[in-house]
Amino acid sequence: MDRRSILKNAGIAGVLAAGVAPAVHAQAAIRWRLASSFPKSLDTIYGAAEVFANQVKAMSGGKFEISVHAAGELMPAFGVVDGVEKGTVEACHTVPYYFFGKDETFAIGAAIPFGLNSRQMTAWMYEGNGLKLMREFYGKYNIINFPGGNTGAQMGGWFRKELKTAADVKGLKFRIGGFAGRIVERMGGVPQNIPGGEIYQALEKGTIDAAEWVGPYDDQKLGFNKVAPFYYYPGWWEGGPQVDLFINQKAYNALPAEYKAIVEAASSHAHVDMQAKYDARNPVALKQLVGNGAKLRAFPNDLMTQAFKISMQVYDELSAKNPSWKKVYEDYAKFRSDQNLWFRFTEATFDRFMQSQKL
Ligand code: PYR
């Protein structure tokens, strides 16, 4: 009997039982499209969606394929939530805070100024109430989310002019990711929520005065150091921003149980992988940037203090007028307070000691 008739007559179970490995490649039974909010050049943040898709494909033996599309390929970078909600695509990979204009609660699923760091955010998601509460919220948009990466604490961005005090923020046209713009606005700045792939052009042309993206590795690739010399830290609005995989609820519900498990495992893998890439690559890129003339500066103290006060005011105001925000933020804030209590002892003390040794 030739191979074709074995396959035809016995089916795949019969072939395996007979110990004959089929040489044919499995046909994908399920094909999804995933729209990214990021440009293809960023193998870290865009790459995480590819890591996810590759894992899904490998774990399903090639039967579940997800094609990944860069920002602008199927839809604009900031159109991806609408795309998933309507089912135009089955999935997207994005930073939820971009969508704070729909509802500020989106931001808590990514990062809010003076929020959780990367470790704490992952803990809130997987062990605290984070995933449960955010899923309940995203349910209004026909979306189920899976953590799909974290960048770790970010840099504060690239500025043409030095910032000496908080007053220097006044009138500053600053590209900042999503919700944090609300705080910059209260400080007198002019925030611009521009997708990653379009920032360089705006900074180069002078449409904006300053820009932040993620950190040394990505920022060097995007070339910001060529047009703005002062590189500020820390990105107080992004202590540990989570990047998410958003999946259309109906498409997810239609998956067989084992493919649901594959989605969950593959997203966890992509989540860890992104943080590892940033942590390993950022120090190398930082040295190169400084070697090429980037001038590192810490944000002035009064700027940090003012930003902190305004952030807490804004959170109180939102709690008074947005019930979704109130529900999620209350849990988040309690978790943050416990985390800071715990991190103050061993994590922070250990980190401070290690930094002082300058190994
Ligand atoms: C941003 O859009 O600012 C990110 O951190 C990805």
Quaternary state reads single chain
Low-confidence stretches: 1-24
DSSP summary, beta strand count: 11
Report strand order across the widest sheet.
7-6-8-5-9-11
Count the DSSP helices. 13
**What compounds are bound to the protein?**
pyruvic acid
- Beta-strand residue fraction: 5-15%
First-last Cα distance: 68 Å
* Overall average residue pLDDT: 93
Report helical residue fraction: 40-55%
Strand/helix succession: HEHEHEHHHEEEHEHEHEEHHEHH
Q: What is the global morphology?
A: globular
Structural class: alpha/beta
Note the main sheet.
Answer: 6 strands, mixed
Radius of gyration (CA) equals 22 Å
Describe this structure in words.
Helices cover 48% and strands 14% of the residues. It has 359 residues and is α/β, with parallel strands linked by helices. The strands form two sheets. The protein has a six-stranded mixed sheet. Strands 2-1-3-10-4 form a five-stranded mixed sheet, sandwiched between helices. It is globular and about 60 Å long. The N and C termini lie far apart (68 Å). Pyruvic acid is lined by residues 95, 154, 177, 196, 213-214, 238, 241.
Topology:
Layout: H1 3-17, E1 30-36, H2 47-59, E2 64-69, H3 80-86, E3 91-94, H4 105-108, H5 118-126, H6 130-138, E4 143-150, E5 157-159, E6 173-175, H7 181-186, E7 190-192, H8 199-205, E8 210-211, H9 216-222, E9 230-233, E10 242-248, H10 249-253, H11 257-291, E11 295-298, H12 301-321, H13 323-357
Parallel strand pairs: 1-2, 1-3, 6-7, 6-8, 9-11
Antiparallel strand pairs: 3-10, 4-10, 5-8, 5-9
Helix pairs in contact: 2-11, 6-13, 9-11, 12-13
